[in-house]
Amino acid sequence: MCTRYITPEQAAIERFWHIGARNPPQWWAHDMFPAYAGPFLRAARDAVTPGRELVVGQWALIPWFAKERKLKYPTCNARSEELAQKASYKHPWARGQRCIIPAAAFFEPCWETGRHVPWRFTRADGAPWGLAGLWNTWTDPATGELVESYTMLTLNADAHPLMARMHKPDPKRPAQLQDKRSVVPIEPEDVDTWLHAPLEQAAQLVRLAPAELFVAEPVSG
């Protein structure tokens, strides 16, 4: 489960994901935590041909049935294995409301020393991460305001040589059934497939990245 990441600058996002520079300047927190406003990329909704648009929304997806913006349960991460069943995510998943979450780095806790030590994950090639997510537009029933939001997909990583080392182990579970989680990177050449392709084709991109793609190191704070 990822609950902190670093966003790139707007110009870097526009340049790397080829979404043009005509977007109005937007503000977001660069050290991101759940419920903060952050950027994501989705299929352009008003374009004649398939395109991409940069959107700022809340990192914690607000489902269509929510009565208020602040939820009593976390929706910053979504288990990929449960997308088709979970009430909060099944409609965005079925409708193809997939997005890319730009991240210069993300953080996960390692407990191998017996205490919480945050680790920072960047890409070995120096590029930003494009993490798989889902988005939704929610209408506030009290005010009529349209609120954009998104969630970050995760995948079981019990067999991953690096990501299985993260998170606090559950002593009641065997090593192969810990349900350690990993984010799901989408490679640049797969972005349009993720954003525009039919569900069955896009679902094939929900997979773990090889350990060689990561640069992982403990950090203080």
UniProtKB/TrEMBL annotation:
Q: Does the keyword Hydrolase apply?
A: yes
Q: What domain of life is recorded for the organism? A: Bacteria
A Pfam family for this UniProt protein? SRAP
Q: Which UniProt keywords apply?
A: Covalent protein-DNA linkage, DNA damage, DNA-binding, Hydrolase, Lyase, Protease
Q: Where is the signal peptide?
A: none
InterPro entries documented for this protein: SRAP (IPR003738), SRAP-like (IPR036590)
Q: What is its EC number?
A: 3.4.-.-
What SUPFAM superfamilies has UniProt attached to this entry? Answer: BB1717-like
Which PANTHER family does its entry note?
Answer: ABASIC SITE PROCESSING PROTEIN HMCES (PTHR13604:SF0), DC12-RELATED (PTHR13604)
Which family does the UniProt entry place this protein in? Belongs to the SOS response-associated peptidase family.
Identification of the protein by name: Abasic site processing protein
